[in-house]
Write a structure and sequence with these properties.
alpha+beta
Length: about 850
């Protein structure tokens, strides 16, 4: 390829350099994935693939640059590297944008993908674009449908009527994980409503125990993520207790409790308002009130219903039950805080030993019975509940027994008399995957009047998205014409209809990492032998916001596919890095809470609201369009180059911490790259004929000056430190600091070092820089005479012998105060150190005429003379 610029110039021109090398890498297919050789280690580096919004933001840049550095280092270490990219391309934003513009979502999405792909290439990422995937392409979603049918055949996919979360703005169902703590949609922000609809679910609950137990195997995952998943799965060890309904021979209410030791203190039972199993036993006057109660709470979110700070509402339904442990009669209530889809949908109320129960009992005058006393015998107040362990009381034969022993005793009695059993319960609910939208993966099911839900034969996949471009308008939701739904049942041949729901987009992202390992397979989603070669992913990089949704679903999918015999791994991601957010300077009115654009600020030293004149807060917040604090990556790249943007992103903060954008720090990285560029040009001006790719490391045969030894020590210290910083706990910022130190050392010893040592210095420096600033490193390597790409060179290895100093500076103290310094051999003994210190000319004036009481020697550091 012809050079597009004058490479002999000493001026650093990042845009010209970067454009040239990006084109060269693409032409030479430099980052093509090669299958690992039998003697070669593999490394799979993956960033969470983006939704193609059309514009790259700084959060994207940080994510992809981090993964790129990791991939480049492992490639230079001689490993076979898979570093792919794809697009999580289905979803509501594209559909809504298409409706607004009257175009097909596929056109909108394709345009955005092309635009973002160009932006990503400007960063110089070492991505193999030949394995690129987009979830909206039929050649991908065909296999999403195939895997759905595999789950359906295993009994893990099923359809049922259920009370679901309904987003009234986006007109679709949401999974529980997609409703935030305030009961609002994760995407539209709408207050979520409740509806009863027939929906498709995946039995993720079948894997609850595996999902929670296997978290302990993920040693290289952040503890925060593992804790979030544990809490979401919510394992509780407890018991199920049966309470017989008074006046009924066969009806009973089963409750789940983690505190069977408090059973003797039950004052009431509460069931979920949605539980209609006992309506036939409820008197008419109570039933009327119950129906009204149900109506009042139907649009209250589950989060609001169970929130501790919310007032709890209840209603007596005129039914009583018998407490099996003591045969006391206990009233039954309904209450909004009991959810029908958790546990048995019924709980026992023990006001004396549960704060929530006490508040509810106090509100409705249901009484309180203390059955456990603290070990200290210090009674709690009447308005408090004692929730700890202690000594049983008011419990008949259990009185005086420790509560933890009473728990076992009660369960022995319960099991023996068949009114109770030990039970493990989970908060995790089955994954609701139905979406009432068009732009998603069609569910490959046909509904037959005679046969029920029938899977589409796998040979007929994909079930394509049924639309015509001229069908798009603001009124349509599904974009499906009725006659397109009619098909023949593949089982009986009768008239049937297609399923009209599409899948949750998280279905597509729950297996995409598997497809990259066998991206061009047209006969299956993947071949197990290729999965064995590449999986699990060695390093996965993405945001903490995906801790529950995507990461939990991907783990479930992996375990389900393993049980089907399709893959051999049980966890998809060996190592997880959740990078921090990129924050920008933000101007906010503390009174109105409105954000102000920076260009509206006339005095940055005293920023005021242009509308009200009120003083503004100046804070760092996550970059966002709505906060007017975003930085367009293309503006930074056009001004400073991609290498500078990469260096800043990596240097400003450790990867897991939030990063505060600062233009001054960007300038600082640009200056550093200029210094490096000038240093390389200075060396190249000496017209060296040696091949930079061939190093003679026989330094033991060459007599080196002290300065040369010091430079070689700096070179190998840099290798050691940078390698360690890029190994386990990634410290890109300190690695770059080591590169700066090495540049300083080369400058310091440049004039006193031989060409042989300088050649080693530049060879190591450019190879260490290569993962961080790939374009500049490539150009410098070529200027230094490298024939092959620097990214195909081997990662430098540390020569440990150079790190040992032949001498060191000995500090001499008298009575703890520094009085002199000596340069002494490293191998000197303690006795010799003492002799040198005592006889040193600079010390005798401080010790003359005084008694030497003690000598303290710290080898390698100091001697302290106590006189």
């Amino acid at each position: 390829m012809n050079t597009l610029y004058d490479s002999s110039t000493e001026r650093y021109s990042p845009l010209e350099i970067e454009q040239y090398w990006q084109a060269a890498w693409e032409e030479n297919n430099l980052y093509k994935t090669h299958s690992p050789r039998p003697d070669q280690k593999k490394y799979y580096a993956l960033s969470m693939f983006p939704y193609p919004s059309g514009n790259l933001h700084m959060g994207h840049v940080r994510n992809y640059v981090i993964t790129d550095v990791i991939a480049r280092v492992h490639r230079m270490k001689g490993e076979a590297v898979l570093h792919p990219m794809g697009w999580d391309a289905f979803g509501l934003p594209a559909e809504n944008a298409a409706i607004e513009r009257g175009i097909d979502p596929s056109d909108w999405t394709e345009t955005n993908i092309n635009q973002m792909k160009k932006q990503l290439k400007l960063l110089g990422l070492s991505i193999d674009w030949e394995v690129e995937q987009a979830t909206c392409k039929a050649e991908y979603y065909k296999w999403t449908q195939y895997l759905f049918l595999e789950l359906f055949e295993s009994g893990l996919a099923y359809q049922k009527k259920a009370i679901v979360n309904w987003d009234p703005i986006d007109n679709t169902v949401l999974a529980n994980e997609q409703v935030d703590a305030n009961g609002r949609s994760w995407r539209s922000g709408a207050k979520v409503e409740k509806k009863e609809l027939k929906q498709w679910f995946l039995k993720i609950t079948n894997y609850a125990e595996q999902l929670i137990e296997d978290l302990d195997k993920l040693e290289n995952w952040p503890e925060k993520v593992k804790t979030m998943q544990k809490n979401w799965i919510g394992r509780s060890n407890g018991a199920e207790i049966k309470f017989k309904i008074v006046g009924s021979d066969d009806k009973e209410i089963t409750v789940f409790t983690t505190r069977p030791d408090t059973l003797t203190g039950v004052k009431y039972i509460v069931i979920s308002p949605e539980n209609k199993s006992f309506d036939s036993l409820i008197a008419d006057e109570f039933l009327v009130e119950l129906k009204k109660f149900r109506k009042d709470i139907e649009n209250i979110s589950e989060q609001d219903r169970i929130a501790e700070d919310k007032d709890k509402k209840g209603l007596s339904i005129g039914i009583n039950v018998i407490n099996p442990i003591n045969e006391e009669i206990v009233p039954v209530w309904v209450a909004d805080y009991v959810l029908n889809n958790y546990g048995t949908g019924a709980v026992m109320g023990v006001p004396a030993h549960d704060e929530r129960d006490l508040k509810f009992a106090t509100k409705y005058d249901l009484g309180k019975k203390v059955v456990i006393l603290p070990y200290s015998n210090n009674l709690v107040g009447a308005d408090q509940a004692y929730m700890g362990e202690g000594i049983m009381c008011n419990s008949g034969e259990l009185n005086g027994m420790e509560s933890k022993k009473a728990k076992l005793k009660i369960m022995d009695i319960a099991i023996k008399n068949e009114w109770g059993k030990i039970k493990i319960q989970y908060k995790l609910r089955d994954w609701l995957i139905s979406r009432q939208r068009y732009w998603g993966c069609p569910i490959p099911i046909i509904h037959c009047i005679s046969c029920g839900a029938v899977p589409v034969p796998k040979k007929d996949l994909p079930v394509r998205i049924t639309s015509e471009k001229n069908e798009f308008n603001n009124k349509d939701i599904k974009f499906i014409v009725d006659d397109k739904l009619k098909v023949c049942c593949p089982k009986c041949g009768g008239i049937a209809t297609k399923e009209t729901d599409t899948m949750d987009t998280f279905m597509c992202s729950s297996w995409y990492f598997l497809r990259f390992a066998d991206a061009k397979n047209q006969n299956a989603p993947f071949n197990i032998s290729n999965i064995d070669k590449w999986l699990p992913v060695d390093q996965y990089v993405g945001g903490i916001e995906h801790a529950i949704l995507h990461l939990l679903y991907a783990r479930f999918f992996t375990k389900a596919l393993k049980d089907k015999g399709l893959i051999n791994i049980s966890e998809p991601f060996s190592k997880l890095l959740t990078q921090g957010m990129v924050q920008g300077i933000t101007f906010k009115n503390p009174k109105t809470l409105k954000y102000v654009r920076s260009e509206q600020i006339t005095d940055p030293e005293d920023p005021k609201d242009p509308s009200t004149g009120e003083k503004l807060d100046v804070i760092f917040e996550k970059m966002s369009k709505s906060k007017y604090n975003g930085i367009d990556p293309s503006l930074v790249i056009n001004k400073y180059g991609a290498d500078t943007a990469r260096m800043f992103i990596l240097f400003k903060a450790p990867p897991e911490k939030d990063l505060e954008w600062d233009d001054a720090d960007v300038e600082g990285q640009y200056r550093f790259l200029n210094r490096l560029w000038k240093l390389v040009n200075k060396y190249c001006a000496m017209k060296h004929d040696e091949n930079i790719e061939e190093l003679n490391n026989n330094f033991n045969e060459i007599k080196l000056s002290r300065n040369e030894k010091d430079l070689r020590r700096s070179i190998n210290l840099a290798i050691k430190s940078v390698t360690e910083d890029l190994k386990d706990e990634y410290q890109f910022n300190t690695a770059i600091s080591e590169l700066m130190k090495l540049v300083n050392s080369i400058n310091e010893y440049y004039d006193s070092a031989s060409p042989h040592v300088l050649k080693e210095a530049f060879s190591v420096l450019i190879r260490l820089v290569a993962p961080f600033s790939p374009h500049l490193a490539e150009e410098c390597w070529r200027k230094l005479g490298g024939a092959k790409s620097v990214h195909l060179q081997s990662w430098p290895l540390c020569d440990a012998s150079t790190l040992v100093k032949e001498s060191f500076e000995l500090v001499i103290q008298v009575n703890g105060k520094v009085r002199g310094k000596l340069n002494v051999p490293t191998e000197i003994s303690k006795n010799e150190l003492e002799k040198l210190a005592v006889s040193s000319e600079s010390i005798t004036k401080w010790t003359q005429g005084k008694d030497l009481k003690r000598v303290i020697v710290v080898p390698g550091k100091l001697v302290n003379l106590v006189v």
